[in-house]
Amino acid sequence: MGEKTTRRTMLKSGVAAAIAALLSPRQSSGHQVKEYPDSMGVLVDLGRCVGCRSCEAACNAEQGLPEPEKPFNDMTVFEELEHGRQRRTDETRYTVVNRYEAPGREHPLFRKVQCNHCQEPACLTSCFVNAYTKTPEGAVIYNQDVCVGCRTCMIACPFYIPAFKYSSAFSPRIQKCVFCYDTRLKYGKPPACVEACPQEALVFGRRQDLIKVGRRRIEEHPDRYVDHIYGEYEAGGTSWLYLSPVPFAQIGFNTELPHAPILDSVKNFLGIVPMVLTIWPALFAGFHLLATRKETAAGEAVDHPEEEKR
């Protein structure tokens, strides 16, 4: 009994330590973020978004996603957040817009959510089968043919974006925004959501240029924007950048992220992945062998009861 308890305790401790190592935001000293000179991006001006959901409809059409339960002109979807449930991306929608009532503002703010296409993606660095690729254009794309459905990327992502396609148990697949890479980005065209925005709240361009545009807007209108471009440094930097008229924490952004890539926070976790993959099959094989031996012994006792009495 003591030995079983010790093994169980060790296993739980190992898993807990792995999760803690993964989720603990630690600053890195000396890590140089990889530069992508040709990386494109999108600058999102939250002060201009009116919550029309045109971006959602455009993404749905471009990616061939199913029609939503509520049409895109139905604004009652924003009530979900008011009831404590933030709309999240999943296999049926690669981008969503949420509404926030910011303190001191007469009108609500709207925030578009999608994969931020990190400069050094945690989903990519955590994937031991290399199912993810960071393209020179800035997109983080996914290859379902090599995915084994471990869902480590879902845990590693600091923005909680990758979603698992639960409706297909025999074909593991992660679903997320792909920056319209195959149909637009690799041809130099803006994503469908950007093209569809009637308020020009989304600006497409080279990431380095968008940062300059964002800084210029902040300098020219200090009373209109918080002095920060979200995504310039968070988690090592992202291709999607945000300007906001209120502190980002008030509209659902994670403001506790380190500037170092999440890669630095998952190294310990990644170190145990090969060990887990090696040990678990052996453990299950041992359990199976023990169970088989017990069944065999029980069967022999039933077949030869006279021998059992002796």
Automatic annotation (TrEMBL):
GO terms for molecular function: 4 iron, 4 sulfur cluster binding; metal ion binding. It is found in: Cell envelope. Residues 40-70, 138-167 form the 4Fe-4S ferredoxin-type domain. Its main location: other. The chain crosses the membrane at residues 269-290. It comes from the Bacteria. Keywords: 4Fe-4S, Iron, Iron-sulfur, Membrane, Metal-binding, Repeat, Transmembrane, Transmembrane helix. Pfam families: Fer4_11. GO terms for cellular component: cell envelope. InterPro entries: 4Fe4S_Fe-S-bd, 4Fe4S_Fe_S_CS, FDH_Electron_Transfer_Unit. SUPFAM superfamilies: 4Fe-4S ferredoxins. PROSITE patterns: 4FE4S_FER_1, 4FE4S_FER_2. PANTHER family: FORMATE DEHYDROGENASE, NITRATE-INDUCIBLE, IRON-SULFUR SUBUNIT, IRON-SULFUR PROTEIN. This is Fe-S-cluster-containing dehydrogenase component. The lineage of its organism: Bacteria, Pseudomonadati, Thermodesulfobacteriota, Desulfobulbia, Desulfobulbales.
